[in-house]
Amino acid sequence: MPAYSHPGDAGADLTAAVAVQLAPGERATVATGVAIALPDGYVAFVVPRSGLAAKHGITIVNSPGTVDAGFRGEISVTLLNTDSSVPYSVAVGDRIAQLVIMPVTKARFIPVSTLPGSQRGGSGFGSTGYTTIDSESLNDDQQGELL
Predict the structure, then answer these.
(1) pTM, full prediction
(2) Mind spelling out the 3-state secondary structure of 76-108?
(3) Which value, in Å, is the radius of gyration of the alpha carbons in the chain?
(4) Which secondary structure element, helix H or strand E, spans residue 13, and what is its range?
(5) First vs last Cα of the chain: how many Å apart?
(6) What would the DSSP string read from start to end of 20-86?
(7) Partner of 20 for a Cys bridge, out of 40, 90, 96, 122, CB 3.0 to 4.6 A?
């Protein structure tokens, strides 16, 4: 059963219904034993747990996974072990993902021959750039913060 760990949490924890061993770089689809019936106008997103990602390199391949209101099957989570050398074991009952339920706004798509202009235009991946920091200009305390 999905459960919220703390008051105010947006995501309810999903747990593994089966045990799985993930070798380095391996992915596996893990059953949760959970099926839900969302009302029309809602969607559930299956998202990674930050602790699994930060501590073990475990993430979700198709994050967020989308559970539509009409879906009535079991929710499964495709986990990926991004660690290059350490396997990861998932036991039955381990928290493996979070389920976030949200209202959905339906768009009305209209074919047009041209789009109105915008400041961003057609710029996509990497269009906002990034900032580099010259590590030689930082003091020892600041350099530690970059690691």
Answers:
(1) 0.79
(2) EEEEEECCCCCCEEECCCCEEEEEEEEECCCCC
(3) 20
(4) strand 11-15
(5) 39
(6) EEE-TT-EEEEEEEE---PPTTEEEEEE--HHHHHHH-EEETTSSEEE-TT--S-EEEEEEE--SS-
(7) 90
How far apart are alpha carbons 63 and 47 in whole angstroms? 6
Q: For residue 135, what are its two tokens? A: 């590590």
d(CA 22, CA 42): 32
Sequential pLDDT tens for the chain (147 residues): 999 999 999 999 999 999 999 999 999 999 999 999 999 999 999 999 999 999 999 999 999 999 999 999 999 999 999 999 999 999 999 999 999 999 999 999 999 999 999 988 888 877 777 666 655 655 555 555 544
Q: What is the CATH number of domain 11-103?
A: 2.70.40.10
Domain boundaries, the chain: 11-103
